[in-house]
Amino acid sequence: MTNTLSGRFLILTVIFVMLAEVFIFLPSIARFREDYLLARLERAQIASLALLATDGMISEELEEELLRNAEVLNVVLRRDAVRQLILSSDEMPAIAASYDLRDPSAFELMRDAMARLANPEAQVIRVIGEPVREAGLLIEITMPTEPLRMAMIDYGLRILALSAVISIFTAVLLFVAVQRLMVTPIRRLVASMMRYAEAPSDATRIITPQGRVRELRNAEDALQSLQTDLTGALKQRERLAQLGEAVAKISHDLRNMLSVATLVADRLEASEDPTVRRIAPRLVGSLNRAINLTEATLAFGRAEEPAPKLDRVGLRNLVEDVIENERLAADSAQITYACYVPADVSVRADPEQLHRVLSNLVRNARQAIAATGKPGEIRVTGTDGPEAWVIEISDTGPGLPQKAIDHLFQPFHGGARKGGSGLGLAICAELVRGHGGRLELARSGAGGTCFQVILPAGLAA
């Protein structure tokens, strides 16, 4: 009960109604006490007037009966500036308190009522009031408090019982209303969400808004829009996944075909025909670029790169290995390599993935310089900071095209060199992100390009 919306609402309703009744109870019980005392004053006045009408010629038995009917012990009237004891009992106990009802404040009435309920001791009090119909200046009575307190308790219990009935009845009505207006639509909304979650690609499971309450209708409309967009995205993703699988298969077979074509093109370089010998290097270069593109497509087509296996890696040895591989891949005296990495710098990374990142960046730099036909330098530096390791790969090439800068690290939007696809940088950025770091373009222009691989040193902990 307490862990449901309707149950909690029911309990809170009962509590709030009872609190409201408690606030009503204080002025009600004070009013009841005032009316009770005024009624005793009126009865005492009637009894005293009956006695005055007979000039006091009544028996003691009748006088006692008048006092019993008025529920007082004695009556004092002040008429014509004369204070006169009209009725009195034989025995008069000590008076505990006096109350003036001629002009009491609301606070005084509530305070005196609560004090009387809290005091169970039987006492005698004096009550002062104004006579009815101006039959004198003042009327005073003395009376016992026990009948007053019992009447107040009885009235209070009846008020509390009535309050309980009202609160329960109100709570039940509100419970039914909340069930119909809120809980049932919310349950229907949750059931629709669970049904959709079982098969989000099924468009027939998208919720149909039916709520009449504005807030719930807005929630259903928002959920319908979200489910519609999600279903469309899932269908598009499924089509892209199928397309990616087909492209991967095509790239795999195409790579094998291009490898065979490359072997044939290598033999063309030995031809004695000068035209063939002049065209063969260009053909080999084009085939190599096509093979690289298919390999990059296959690498990018994987769902995700495996998580890096972090280990301590000597950065200088790794950079020197990458540079040596590039020298062997393209033996050109016009391009020089420089390694400015201290021998004691070691990073915490996956050596294989970091090797792929640096190889790709150095290869891009080499190809950018080679495309100019001018001499150039590729420089790799590494620094060990307190918060991060920074590896810079800079070159003296022509800089990146503006299209490549605008779509940096986005595949198939143009690469760092003419005819490139941008897959290499996208894969490098993904591998660096897997290490908790980032790949940034530090600068690019006529003076060359510089990329930074930033790895957090916090991984060492």
TrEMBL record:
UniProt keyword terms in alphabetical order: ATP-binding, Kinase, Membrane, Nucleotide-binding, Phosphoprotein, Transferase, Transmembrane, Transmembrane helix, Two-component regulatory system
Catalytic activity: ATP + protein L-histidine = ADP + protein N-phospho-L-histidine
UniProt keyword Plastid, yes or no: no
Domain Histidine kinase: 249-459
Broad enzyme group: transferase
Pfam families to which the protein is assigned, alphabetical: HATPase_c
Protein name: histidine kinase
